[in-house]
Amino acid sequence: MSENQQEVNSVKIITWNVNGIRSLYKDASAMKEGLDSLDGDIICLQETKITRGNLDNHGGKGNCKDFCDLVNEGNRGNQKIGANVSNYGSHGNKGSSLDEGTAVVDGYNSYYGFPRSKSGYSGVATYCKDAFTPFRAEEGLSGLFASSDAVDSVGCYGNIRAEFSKMELKELDYEGRAVITQHKIRISDAEDKMLTVINVYCPRADLDNKERLQVKLRFYHLLEIRTRAILDSGSFVIICGDINTCHKPIDHCDPSDMEEFNKNPCRKWLNRIIYDPSAEENTNNVNVSSFHLIDAFRFVNPVEENAFTCWCTQLNARSTNYGTRIDYILVDLRLGGEMDDCVIMKDVFGSDHCPVKAVIDLKFVRAPKCPSFCTKYYPEFAGTQKKLFEFFSQKSSDHELCTSTTVGSADDPAIAYGKRKVSDTKLKSKKQKSDTKKQVGILNFFQPSETKTADSCGSGDLDDQGSGNRSSLESLSSLSSLSEVSPDSFEFTSFEPSAVLDPWSSGDVADETLTVAMFSETEPELSSCTGAGTERTSSSAVWKSILSGPKCPPKCRGHREPCVQRCVKKKGPNFNRKFWVCARGEGRSNDPSARCDYFLWDSNR
Question: Catalytic: 361?
Answer without folding.
Answer: no
